[in-house]
Amino acid sequence: MALEPGGDAGRRAGALRRAHERFTTAGRVEADVRPVVAESWRRCARARVAPEGRASVELRDDELAVYRDGHPLSRVMPVIRELTGAYAVDGEHLVAVCDAQARLLWVEGHRGTRELAGRMNFVEGARWAEAVAGTNAPGTALTVDRPVQVFAAEHFQRPVQDWTCAAAPVHDPHSGRLLGAVDITGGNRLAHPHSLAFVGAVARAAESQLALLSPRPPGGTARLTALGRDEALLVLEGRRVRLSRRHSEIVVVLAHRPEGLSGDELLLELYEDERITPVTLRAELSRLRAVLGPRLLESRPYRLGASVDADFDTVGRRLASGAVAAALGEYTGPLLPASRAPGVARLRERLRDQLRTAVIARGDPGLLADWAYSPWGEDDLAVWRALAAALPEHRRPAAQARARALDREYGRADGAAALGREYGNGDATLGREYGNGGEGEGGARAPFGNPW
């Protein structure tokens, strides 16, 4: 609990402000700061969240409307409104529902409170993820995946410290996937055990309603997670199966082609080496069937016997609807990054290029920064150039410096490749050995030193 029953809210708020000040100036957490808040503050510090900052709006107007209408939680908004509407209006509170990236999709309730909350960007379309908006109930509840109450100066960002909020995560009732969170935001009166219990009950009611609206199909619904990982995770009927690399490739290809593939077609999608025989593929499929069960892997043609909700398909759907921010939020990395299976590689590059192109075209500095500072975007010269152009002038130097460094690096690589082509019969090896990679650039020293 943020405040014990009968506790003095004013005194507690003052103690928290002093504790917050000591943490932001000296990095020291006081003993009376709750562990869930202390851990959150440390995560905020590591993420370099600015204590004086505020949430940014990522989804606007048409993009917000399209994304919101297609989100699973839109189906349970009538239930959430029925349970919370009078509570919010009578208590001068707000009820907010966000997605799994903590983007606020609905903010409803007392009109005056809504106007005040708008000053700190607690509005529809704003992203309140802990890593960008600091400690707050919806963002922290999603981070720790459990109900959380945040009171006064427990909020990491100072513009939010006059508020109190409680939030609980909402999951898909069949796959267990995190869909978002329900939040109640208002004044100090929310610093009460009842508010946390109430928002938890609303979240459970939303999950129950989702189960009624979307009963489990006869063949089951599987959740496939393959972005940013070499071994895919498949969740089906409560079972979590971590697939081997080859099995991950098979399931990804079949999930992308639900109509099924013949043995010859699947062979071409999976193997670079044309000498691999159908016998090898059948043996691999037999092992996969033993892992998944005969009902999930069918043959003639080879296909999955359940509806598969794949994370890479979700990104594709978001892009197709024009929801670039939502697509980037779902993109946790390249599809099976270590895979060399032709079908996987084509799908991986197509998805990456479509998303990257959309991010550059949008020109939004927040989206560009998300890509540029990711492991897969840190060497992307075009994105760094676009970010440097999109940022306000006072924030450009770091992006410009990174773009210049990449430009020099790629220039040397191009020069080395050209040298190799000229003197090495089309092979860049000679150029790499003598034209690049000196000690000062982090490469191996050429055998006879760098003659240039």
Q: What would you say this structure looks like, in words?
A:
By secondary structure, this protein is α+β, with helices and mostly antiparallel strands. The chain has 3 domains: 9-213, GAF domain (Beta-Lactamase, 2-Layer Sandwich); 221-310, Arc Repressor Mutant, subunit A (Orthogonal Bundle); 392-452. It has 18 helices and 13 strands. It has helices at residues 9-26, 35-46, 61-70, 77-91, 111-118, 130-133, 137-144, 193-213, 245-256, 263-270, 278-292, 311-320, 324-330, 342-362, 365-372, 381-390, 397-423, 429-435, and strands spanning 56-57, 94-99, 104-109, 126-127, 148-151, 164-171, 178-186, 221-225, 233-236, 239-242, 297-298, 303-304, 307-310. The strands form 4 sheets. Strands 3-2-7-6-5 form a 5-stranded antiparallel β-sheet, sandwiched between helices. α15 runs antiparallel to α16 (381-390). The N and C termini lie far apart (67 Å).
Please state how the strands of the largest beta sheet are arranged side by side.
3-2-7-6-5
Radius of gyration: 26 Å
The largest sheet is:
5 strands, antiparallel
CATH topology term of the largest domain: Beta-Lactamase
Pfam families: GAF
GO molecular function: DNA binding
Region (Disordered): 422-452
Biased composition (Gly residues): 434-443
Quick overview of this protein structure:
This is Transcriptional regulator. With 452 residues, the protein is α+β, with helices and mostly antiparallel strands.
Features:
OmpR/PhoB-type_DNA-bd, 3 domains, disordered C terminus, GAF-like_dom_sf, Arc Repressor Mutant, subunit A, DNA binding, Beta-Lactamase, 18 helices, 4-stranded mixed sheet
